[in-house]
Amino acid sequence: MSKPKIAIVVGSTRAARFADTPVEWISKIAKSHADIEVEVVDLRDFPLPFFDEVASSAWVPSQSDVAQRWQKKVAEFDGFIFTAAEYNHGPTAVLKNALDYAAKEWNKKPAGFVGYGGVGGARAVEQLRMHAVELQMAPTKAAVHIVWADFLAVRQGEKKLSDIEHLNQAANGLIEEITWWAKALKIAREADVLAEEAKAA
């Protein structure tokens, strides 16, 4: 079996976003795990309109060229780690919109989260886990929560994320869990394809 391919999705597009810092940090840790391939996927590269299709792409092909390109990109991966900024006790609108603009491309793949904000983005992450379930993903128990004190220390240049050992431990735990699920679900999806091919033969 080929190595599972994991996307680290940058879940904010603001000019002043913090997301680049945890993305760089967790990407480096993930790339040290030799049994997965890792790619950063930036939502800035997919300027999706706010959802304006006649229906979900689960039922009707999307008309937006950007949406079609986004769906093809999502389909390339076997698992996802999303950065989750918390705005008003929820995830960013741009990330929720990106989730809504794909359907079957998410199915039967693991989803993990790196949250940050007042309580480490926990409320945003909990909402995203519910969205992931509806998209037939497998959200992991393990997550990274960059709480406000750590966020400020990093934002103000007093520390780097890599200096905070409990975050390094959480990141490795998340990556190990994503990797396990990505391998297991990749095998299961491939078995489904073979079963369908056998039926059609």
TrEMBL record:
Pfam families: FMN_red
NADPH-dependent FMN reductase-like domain location: 4-143
Transmembrane segments: none
InterPro entries: Flavoprotein-like_sf, FMN_Rdtase-like_dom, NAD(P)H-dep_reductase
SUPFAM superfamilies hit by this protein: Flavoproteins
Name assigned to this protein: NAD(P)H-dependent FMN reductase
Organism: Aminobacter niigataensis
